[in-house]
Amino acid sequence: MQAKSFTIWAALALLVGASVPAVTVAISDTSEALDEALRLKPRLDHGTQLFETCAACHGADGWGASDGSTPAIAGEFAPILLKEIVEFRYDARYSIRMQHFVDRHHLASPQDLADVAAYVQSLPPRQPDATGQSPPAGDGASVFANFCASCHGSHAQGNWAKRVPRLAAQHAEYLQEQMHDAAEGRRPGIGSEHARLLARLTSNDIDAIANYLAALPPMPPSRTMLHTDP
Q: Is the domain defined by 128-220 classed in CATH 3.10.180.10?
């Protein structure tokens, strides 16, 4: 497999709050691990057990944290969840907590990856906070329609076939952080075209999109790539 390299000293400095020497880490191509997990038939009963570790941060319902420090993952497409797990596992994304909990000590095999992703997909997705009102129209809706809907869907429901995540009903603060990080080059692994598109948005645009998406009701996946036991 061809290796990719990233210099991560700046990211490490931000995480630990101190200067560290430049370190170049060879990151193996993640596609093989992802493809292997996708070929397996997951076991939801085992995935339930594995998710107990994830629940410490993401919550027993998979709805994450209201302050956006942990994303809502319940009901997300399993292939997308697997892609994220594999990227953290092989250092293609950076998060001390995630990189620790998706290592081989916690998720030993591709079967474990398939099992926990299928279980998370089976959870009812987060519902927006009840306000008695429809998702706000205006800047967020129009900017999303112009910049994001062609990939993420008109209702931010995502795209299973293209492994595009659902954004509807995600925490606004989490979306803001991820979009700013991608636009400013702090999120490795994101496509360069996607990053350039986000870089065209103003900070107000990003905040408006995030607030709009957080208020959208989720649209559950209509199909799954992974077969599950009844």
A: no
